[in-house]
Amino acid sequence: MVLLTGRTLLAGIVAMAASATVLVAAPASAATTSTGVRCTIVGTPGGDVLRGTSRRDVICGRGGSDIIYGKGGNDLIDAGSGGDHVYASYGADRVIAGAGEDWVHGGGGPDSLNGGTGQDNIWGEDGADVISGGDHFDVISGGPGADRIYGGAAGDNISGGTNGDTISGGTGSDSISGGDGNDVVYGGDGNDRLSGNYGDDQLHGNNHLDTVSGGPGQDRLWGESGVDTLNGGDGNDKLSGGSGVDEVHGNAGTNTCYYDIYDYLYGCFRDRSAPVVVGASLSPTAIDSDSGDTKVRVRVHVKDDLRVSQVQGWVSGLADDNPAQLYTNFMPMVSGGVRDGWWQGYVTVPRWTPGGKLSLEAIATDTSGRTTDKFDVASIQVTSTNPDTAPPVVKLKSLSATSVDVRTGAKTIKAVLSVTDRIGVTKMNGLRSLTVCFGRTMDGDFICGAEPVRTAGTIYSGEWTVSLTVPKGTPTGVYDLQITADDRILVSEDYYGPHLYQEWVDTYPSSVQPAQELSNATFKVTGS
């Protein structure tokens, strides 16, 4: 490839233009199309100068070394084969450069630029552009705007420009610079050189021998597989060499490095141990559950040599044969810092919860994924003269269909359930309280429905609806429902259609009760 710069490039373009055919908007041949769209401006197989209008144009170069100006409008420019110069100008333009060594300028607006085969030079310029280099070595510059850039095959030279860009080098040994903004960069296959420059960047070396540099900002760097060199640059960075013998440099700032025994680390804080649960408290420490629901505050003190990422609490009476189990959500930190702080959440002890000691298990995880479980770090004493230890009672009120034909497409069956329980059935901390599935045998595959929705009544006595999708081609046969219901202290029961229930009775005669059989929880499928 010969690169033309300065006066040499200008002289070449002038000479090309002087010998070219100049075409403007004119009726196009009915037989000339691009991507199924009729061309409004059509070139010749030779070198042409094609100019668009202020409206939307479909410009087709057809062949030769063309110079194409889109002007205004949301244009489609198909340069065709040959070494072309394309200036898309303003508007949301689509450019297909085709074969040959092309020079493509997106101009203003969010453009879609495809270099095609050949060694291309592509500038996105203003706007959030989507740029694909295609085959061979390409030079791509996104320019201002949040661009998405794909280098494609062969080693590419890519610069994102300003704003937060997403860049994928593809195959080949690429050189990629994110530029200003918070960029996300994937090197892909090949020995890549990645640079985030300014901004809080995420850089992935992917495969082979990569050099990954974050630059100023709080960056995340992954070498991934291969022998990699990582440089965090200025700022508080997180670096992971991945598999292979890597060299990891945190550089300036407080840097966190994730490593294996084969890596060389410089300027890094290392995670050497799991979090330590120092202490915890529950408040109040004693309740009478007969008086109603009680909200209990859970506080946990955690230290870590690097950084605590999440803390959760589990309040349970299982150690004292009490069935109650209560979970907090992931708790926010309320004081201190991520290396030494207090985390706080809440659980609700429902009315009629059985009496006894409920103990807190604290579960803490750091940013390296190390986890600590500490049991019985605090407790609460519950009293009740009228406890409820019974599981929820489920009845199937109706099925919208008792047979479906899925030979040509999926079908949906709606199930309506009645659910009663003194403690109540409702979604707790993101956990389903009801799960409805269907299958033919206990050791076969089950398909579960969407999350049931309470459509009437209360959490103590309510009507719930669930949609079950029977996929296209499901094997022909008789299918039964299996329903699992949990109340607010996670006392659970399973219910079965008649055939699944009988299978359980035959296999485990003492583990199921007659109340668990739902005789109407069955339907037929005609399928494959």
TrEMBL record:
Keyword Metal-binding among record annotations: no
Residue segments, region Disordered: 160-182
Gene Ontology CC annotation, any one: extracellular region
Cellular localization per UniProt: Secreted
Name of the molecule in the record: Calcium-binding protein
Xref: PROSITE patterns: HEMOLYSIN_CALCIUM (PS00330)
Compositional bias ranges of the Gly residues kind: 161-172
Signal peptide: 1-30
